[in-house]
Amino acid sequence: MIVDIRKWKHVFKLDPDRDISDEALDRLCLSGTDAILVGGSSGVTFDNTVDLLSRIRQYEVPVALEISNQEAIVPGFDLFMIPVVLNADDPKWIVGQHHEALKEYGALLNWDEIVAEGYIILNKDATAAQLTAARTDLDAKDVAAYARMADKLFHMSIVYLEYSGTFGDMELVRRTRQVLENARLLYGGGIDSLEKAQQAADAADTIVVGNIIYSDLEQALQTVNVNFDRNGR
Ligand code: 1GP
């Protein structure tokens, strides 16, 4: 399946390391979301990723893998998303892991199925922030500079503002989106209601809904009803 991420507005992110019932998965996959993104910051293995992929594959919804470790690269996804953490202090998360993976698999990859994501992690308490030693104390100008770096310097198709676990600063999200010319702005973090989904949708191009799936499925499903026509793109 050829996947066009430019059409994605709403995405559910599922963590292979967390349990989800068949019934919940059924409702998520049939919800009308644009895609399911599989990924997590810890405990992601080849086995739990294969298991989740095979369950999602019973549905027509596009499914992408956000690769966070080399051992959990599972073939068969529609798209592979590679985070490059622009504000990581540990270079392993900017180019180090990528270098290792390309040494191993570089000649085998189908580049049409791969996109780089310029990640900017902004919640200092998020597991991903700690893992990558991200510098999260950034103002709007800092974030804009990283966003332009991803968009104009590195020609990445995605800039991902990651507030995982907390709802972010929507004014900063809006301002960041304004500096992008080609890249799509994904926002993720703390969307736990339709109201917050709408605020994020008014500021970003695509919203990513994660944790609430596991704590309040009904609220998570509500977020699909967000209206994207209000943000002028
Ligand atoms: C996590 O950006 C996603 O990578 C979504 O964040 O889990 O806080 O919804 P939440």
What report would you give on this structure?
The chain has 233 residues and is an alpha/beta fold. The protein has one domain (5-226): TIM Barrel, CATH 3.20.20. It contains nine helices and eight strands. The chain has an eight-stranded parallel β-barrel with strand order 1-2-3-4-5-6-7-8, surrounded by four helices. The longest helix has 14 residues, at 140-153. The two termini are 26 Å apart. The chain binds SN-glycerol-1-phosphate. SN-glycerol-1-phosphate binds at residues 13, 162, 164-165, 188-191, 208-212. Residues 13, 162, 164-165, 188-191, 208-212 line the site of SN-glycerol-1-phosphate. InterPro entries: GGGP/HepGP_synthase_I, GGGP/HepGP_synthase_sf, GGGP_HepGP_synthase.
What are the key terms here?
single chain; 233 residues; alpha/beta; TIM Barrel; 8-stranded parallel barrel; 9 helices; 34% helix; 18% strand; binds SN-glycerol-1-phosphate; Heptaprenylglyceryl phosphate synthase; phospholipid biosynthesis
